[in-house]
Amino acid sequence: MQKAPTSRNEQKRIAALQAYNILDTASEQDFDELTQLASAICGTPIALISLVDKDRQWFKSRHGFNVTETDRALSFCAHAINKPNDMLEVEDARSDERFKDNALVTGDPNIVFYAGMPLVDEEGYALGSLCVIDHERRQLNEQQQLALKILAGQVISKLKLRKKLLELENAGKRIQKLNTLLTLKEREAMQIIEHTPMSMALHTGEDMKIIFANKMMLKAWGKDSTVFGMPFNVALPELAALDFPKTMRQVYRKGIPYEQSEAHMSYLHEGQIKEFYYTYSFTPLKLEDGTVWGLLNTAYDVTQNVKSRENVELAEERLRLAVQSAELGTFYLDSATHEFVPSPRLKELFGFDPEEEVSLQAAFAQIAESHRHKVASAVNASLTLGSAFDIEYPVIGYHDKVQRWVRATGKVYASAEQGKAPFFSGTILDITERKQDEQRKNDFIGMVSHELRSPLTSISGYIQMLKLKATKSNEPTITDIAEKAKRQVDRMSGLISGFLDVARLGEGKIKLNCERFNIARLLTDAEEEVLATVSTHVVNFANVEDTVVNADIEKIGQVLTNFINNAVKYSPFNSTIVVSCTTSGQVAKISVTDEGMGIPAEDQAHVFERFYRVESEQMKVVKGFGIGLYICKEIIESHGGKIGVNSKLDYGSTFWFELPVAQTE
Length: 665
Prior knowledge:
This protein is α+β, with helices and mostly antiparallel strands. The chain has 20 helices and 23 strands. The strands form five sheets. A six-stranded antiparallel beta sheet has the order 3-2-1-6-5-4. The chain has a five-stranded antiparallel beta sheet with strand order 8-7-11-10-9, sandwiched between helices. A hairpin with a 5-residue loop joins strand 5 (about 115-120) and strand 6 (about 125-135). The radius of gyration is 36 Å and the shape is elongated. It starts with 9 loop residues before the first helix and ends in a 5-residue tail after the last strand.
C-alpha cells in the first residue's frame, strides 16, 4: 500500500481546514442532502464528504457508511487532494498498486470503485473531497463527473456559508443571517437540480406533488413550470397511466430506491404519441431520523442509444452468421417456392459429393427415420409461426453410409426485396464427437445402474425374510425396521430404473409395444392400485367414456402413475386429487389435478426438462432428481402426443397429456 505524499504547504492547508471549525461537528442536513444527491446521481451505494486532517480523514457527511473517520494512511482522499483541480477516479482498487493492499479494499467496506473531487477553498487549499464509492468496478460518465464537480462546489459554498454563519454568531447577528441562509439554501438546492446535466424533479407527499423540475425534465414531460405545485397524476395524466404514481408512492412509503434501465414507454408528448427509452430512478430523501421527506426523480433519455444499439446488434447477428458460414454447413430455403440451396459442407455432412444437386427431399431422406418427423415439424413451425429453429438429429451419409450427429439452427428472415417471400436460413454443425461422449456417459450410467440391481434384489429378499421371521416371533420393532428398509430399497430401485430410462432415452433405445386399448381400462387399473397404496389423500377418478388409443399401455400407465404420485407428494395431507379423461375430436386428454403448492409461472416451462427441480422452501423437504417428468415427456412425445401443466401458485396444479384417438377399424 502506498501512503499518499504530503505537499510542502501541508501545515497551511491544515490551518485552513481548522479555520472552518467543522471537524468533529454533528451531522447537518445541508451536507447530508448533497451526499444523497451524489449517491443518486452517480448510482453508488456510498457517498462521503471527507476532510483530511493531520493523521486522519473525518467524514462530515456519510451516506451508506457508518464509520466517522479512518487513519489518513488508508485514505483515498489523501491522494486526491494532491491534485486539487482534478478528479481522482479509481475504476478497480484491487488492481491499483496504490490501493490493492489497503485495508479498506481488502476488508470492510471492500472498496473497488472510488471517485473523489477535491474540495478547494478560496485560497486554493484542498480541504478534502466529495467522493463516491462502490463495491463493484465501474466508471463515471461525463454527466456524472460534471455533476460531482458541481456538488463539490456546493460543499465548499456551504462550508463558506457555515464559516460566515459562525462569524455572524460571534458578532451577535445569528438570527438575521439564519433566515438569509435558509433562503440561500432553497435557492442553492434549486440551482443544483437546474444545472445538473440530467432530467431531475423533486416531489413531496403521498400525491407526489411536483415541487420543482429542471428544464430537461420539463422537456421530457412536454410541460412547463405551470405544473409546479400540482400532484403528479393531475399534472401528467399521460404518465400516470403508465403506473408511475404507484411506484413512486411505494418508494416514498418504504424508503427503498427504485431504478429501471432502458425502460421502454410510449406516451402523449407535445400532442403526439412518441416512443422513448429512459434509464430512470426514484430516490427517497430522508431526514436524520430516517423519515422520508421527499423523492428525487432522475432520468436519462437513452432512446437514441438503444435504437442505435439495436441496429448494431442486428448487423452483428448477420455478421456472426456470415462468419459461421465460412466454417459450418449452411442452407437457404425459399418459403414460397421451397427452393433449397445447401453449402458444400452441408452436402459433405449428409454424404453427398460437393458437385451433386441436392433437393430438400433428398436431404430429408438422409435424416434418421427416428428423427425425420421431428425435424420436419420444427422446420414447418419456423416457416409458419416464425419459431426459433434449433434441433439435433442423426443423418446417414448418402454415399459413405456413415452416421453423423448434427445440430441445425436457423430462423426466418424477411427478404430485402419488396414483395418477395421470406426465406429460411441457418447453419449445420457436426456434433458427432459430443454425442459419442454422451453415449459413453449413458453406457456408464446404464452399466452402473444394471450392476446395482442384483445386490438390491438380494437385499430385498433378505429383508422380506427378516420381516417374516420378525412377524412370526412377534417382534414389532424389527418388523417396523424391516418395513422401513424395504421402502428405502424400493425407492433406490425406482431411482435406478429412472436413471436407466434416462440412459435409454439418450440412446433412443426405449421401444414402444403399441396396442389398441381402452383408456377406461387404464384408469380402472390405476384406481385399484391407488386404493391399495394411497391412504393419505382422497383420489377421485371421474367417469370415463370408452376411448380407444393405440399406445404402449405399460408406458402410458407409467406416466399416469408418475402424475398421481407427484400429486400425492406435493399436496397437503387429506387433500383431494382428481383424475379425469376427456375426448375432443380425435384427441384424448388425461389430467391429474391436485390442491398442492403450485408451480411459479417462470418454472412451468422447465419442469419437463431433465434434472430440473423447482427451487423453493417447500421443495427442500421433498426429495427427487428431476427425471420423472422428463421421462414422461419423452414417452408421450414418442407417441406423437403432447404433455403440459397448468398451475397457480398456492392453489394447485393440473398435469395433463394428450394422445391421438385410434382410428376405427
